[in-house]
Inverse folding.
């Protein structure tokens, strides 16, 4: 492979690394979610009596045939404390990011078979993202060392420019019409409509407001933008030193 080919390959890998790194970093950090907790503490959520036992993943396969929950019990209300809200969020993030965690349960919240299935689908996507992060990291380390020894930093420019397209293309659309962007994302990446949660069946959705996901999406784009500009800056600095 020619040196230009190696730079292009490394640039593409760098772009995927930046994307997967930004998603993982934003998801791991609870800072944004913590900002929403005070208003979430005021929620009164329905707790129906007929619920799936918390964390019973054996019922995932019954999602398509599960009978609707009885609605006459939807008048039962409960508020979660700040600690319970944080605990549920941490449980969800841990389940999505930890490949060895197979069970999911929430504190004082019901969960339908469809809801549980959706979280398993989300876990599969995060597993792919983490896999990409590990794969690109393993390949980028030797490629970067090889290019550094040659004094060639062109792949930083390729990767920076390529990853820069992500926030430029998606940023405006997400900011202007996030709800449509959110719906399109789910239609592309999920094969069912289980992501359309009903609060009386899956009250966890009330603790995951749309504004929170919008903030997460914008945070991911900001990190991508920052990493892209950093790559371009380093490439430019390296060229100046060479000249």
């Amino acid at each position: 492979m020619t040196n230009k080919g190696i730079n292009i390959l490394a640039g593409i890998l760098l772009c995927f690394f930046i994307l997967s790194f930004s998603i993982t970093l934003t998801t791991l950090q609870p800072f944004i979610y913590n900002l929403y907790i005070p208003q979430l503490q005021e929620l009164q959520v329905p707790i129906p009596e007929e619920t799936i036992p918390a964390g019973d993943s054996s019922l995932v396969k019954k999602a398509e045939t599960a009978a609707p929950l009885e609605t006459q019990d939807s008048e039962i209300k409960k508020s979660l404390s700040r600690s319970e809200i944080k605990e549920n969020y941490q449980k969800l993030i841990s389940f999505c990011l930890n490949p060895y965690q197979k069970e999911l349960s929430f504190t004082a919240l019901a969960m339908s078979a469809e809801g549980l299935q959706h979280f398993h689908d989300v876990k599969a996507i995060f597993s792919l993202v983490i896999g990409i992060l590990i794969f690109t990291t393993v390949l980028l380390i030797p490629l970067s060392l090889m290019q550094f020894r040659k004094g060639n930093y062109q792949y930083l420019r390729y990767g920076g420019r390529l990853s820069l397209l992500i926030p430029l293309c998606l940023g405006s659309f997400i900011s202007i019409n996030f709800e449509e962007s959110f719906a399109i994302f789910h239609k592309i990446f999920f094969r069912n409509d289980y992501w359309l949660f009903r609060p009386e069946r899956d009250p966890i959705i009330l603790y995951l407001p749309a504004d929170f996901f919008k903030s997460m999406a914008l945070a991911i784009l900001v990190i991508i933008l920052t990493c892209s500009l950093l790559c371009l800056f380093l490439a430019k600095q390296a060229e100046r030193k060479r000249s």
Notes: Residues 3-242 form one domain. The longest strand covers residues 45-46.
